[in-house]
Amino acid sequence: MLLYGARRIAWIATTLVVLSVLIFAITQMLPGSVAQIIAGQFASPDSVAAIAAKLGLNDPYYVQYWRWASAVLHGDFGRSLIMERPIGPVLWEALANSAALAGVAFIVVVIVGIGLGVVAAIRAGGALDHAVSLFTFLGVSVPEFFWGIVLILVFSRWLGWLPSGGLADPDSGLAAHAAHVVLPAATLAFALIAHVSRMTRSSMLGVLRSQYVRNARAKGLPERVVIFRHALRNALLPTITILALDVGWLIGGVVVAETVFAYPGLGRALIFSIERHDLPMIQASILVIAAIYCAANLAADLLYAFFNPRIRYG
Amino acid sequence: MADAATIAARPQRRRFRLPPTLLVGLSLTGAVLALAALAPLIAPYPYDEISVLARLKPPSAAHWLGTDDFGRDVLSRTLMGARLSLFMGFGATAICLGVGVPLGLLAGYLRGRTDEFIMRAMDVLMSFPPILLGLLILAVTPPSLWKAMAAVGIVYVPAIVRLARSATLEIAQEEFILAARARGDGTAYILFAEILPNAWPPLAVEAGLRVTFAILLGAALSFLGIGAQPPSSDWGLMISDARPFLEPAPWIALAPGIAMSITVIGINLLGDGLRQILDPELRTGRTG
Known about the structure:
CATH topology of chain B: MetI-like fold
Distance between the termini of chain B: 23 Å
Oligomer: heterodimer
Number of domains of chain B: 1
CATH topology of chain A: MetI-like fold
Number of helices of chain A: 13
Structural class of chain A: mainly alpha
Helix content of chain B: over 70%
């Protein structure tokens, strides 16, 4: 297990290094030099050259990359060109907001997704199963940004129950904070619930047909014990992998949901910086998001190995 | 036991019936395709015709789905948007097949270092969340529908490479490949004339899935402002532009959103139906 973990961590570290080179290389292709952006459209060539020299933009690319990468390793992401502030604090605040949103959505997905999948599998072929499969079908077919807009229209504009976006005032109560998270989290969760419940249903069905579940029933164990102690435990293994994959979807969804609901998180910061060609901010936010994604994959690999000994010694 | 015997003895009169999902999927997809193809003929107005007097008008006889904030006819825009959406779906899928299939064939056939290099590169691509890879590609250049399509295509390359590779690994062991090698056929010939024709069924199913993913991801990129640009009537862009007018004119957002959902539902049902027909044979053939 330790060796396996070490190998996975080494692989993730290598991947992150390659990713950082890739991010750096691609962002260098941005049209218009950074110096020009800082100096403004009508600056004289001399002042542009001076800024370029000050920022070290004339150095070879590998020197520039090394300067950027080693600063990042020291926790220094540079300064935002547009906000003219250090990126680090901005990024961490946005990250905290996104984490709250994604965390709530993820918990909802795990509980509702697995729950619906189990119910559908137990009642396979029944009305409840059909209802769940209709719901999941809508979940994978309706684009999440449209789903978010429908939620705003119904719950915010027409019913007036919930705010349509933004964050609550920092000093308002917990209820106000929660109210601002409900719609974006519901938007995020919808498609993923569909995905997770489909997977749980099919793996649960497979397990329910297995020999040892029949044995457990034949022993006269109560159905509750058979379902939860025998079937669900084994059915959850593929679901864990799916949940890890879904972290990637969740991150993509966060970008979309934050844009729909004007929620001040990492995704919105990224889109904002892309719109304004804020190079250091683009680099930093993409790197942080990629790192989170890698960490989630690592966690999933380790969890999977923990539950499935065959992998550990592979 | 008696049950099994009677079932086995009963003459097989079961007629081959198309699954209902396939029929519904076919008709929905067919309808969307037809509307998209005929859009320039049946759209009542040009999709970008601005009319200051007809701003934000609710659905009426003159404008079946109302007008947007520029007075443009929402029905015409939605119809023309279908073309862009399908274009995105099929174009991006074509790109990811065009790039992914040759790489997968090469990796699976040559093995060794080539395989290692290609697959590690794919692992790196896959370590980006899909939308982020698209964003990274689009972040650095002025946005356009074409670039969004290329980005979406690249995002889905690793899945295709993996699939093509695993199919190739299996087929490369077959005798007729050995025979082709012994004949002295070139690698390119073996890959595309001998292996590919035998590897396509799983690739076709996967490509079908990718079409809907590509439509959804492409629309999301346009929605985020880094895909199609105004005055294009891309559905994602239309929904994004409609946001300030949700309260007074919800139809501007609802029309393209519902059209898009119907399109994706149709293609998904079609795919499900096809798999119901194809899969039982495939499954029993493989694992049985």
